[in-house]
Amino acid sequence: MNLGQRIKEARIQKQMTQKDLVGDYITRNMLSKIENNNAFPSIKTLEYIATQLELSIKELLEVGDSTENPDTNFRDLAESLILACEYGIENGTSFEAELVRLRDLVSPVLFGYLLLEAKIAVTGQNHQRAKDILQVMETSNVKKNILLADIAMIEKRFDDAIEFLLPCTGNLNDTELEYSRLIYAKLEQCYIAVEDYKNAYNYAKLQK
What we know:
Layout: H1 3-13, H2 18-22, H3 28-35, H4 43-52, H5 57-61, H6 73-86, H7 95-103, H8 109-123, H9 127-135, H10 142-154, H11 158-169, H12 180-193, H13 197-206
């Protein structure tokens, strides 16, 4: 079930017409487009709709069955969040402040898409945008630290890259063990760059 279907179902359950739900906030035509998945609401509109339906944003966005593929609307919301934060749409708040405010309102699936956006930003050499996105994600996230290290290495800040990578070496859970060789390879490169050949050799050995 996509976001539009969830909104429509919740509205019908509360015995509300489209006119009842929109009030004077948006047009009934816009709500119709949202419910039919032909338009995606802005963050403010989504918060308004959730309030009127007496639901949280997380409840509206939740993926019900864990066996389903994640709802593609999460990626749309991620992009909306990024745009809202970058251009200070909400009360002139910063990118970081806005994401922190919304972090607990939405499903963690959203932040998988934010991680994807950060990767795209790194590929496009938009390092500041990537750092802004990554800064507000969970500090224990190994993928986040690897991306931050990649940015630091591109910018030739090898000591910073090492600082991002070292915590990952002793913090890998079963699903993250696949990253161990990649982390060791990056550490080897960084230590060579700072002329610490002893540590470079140690991490080269760990890759075998």
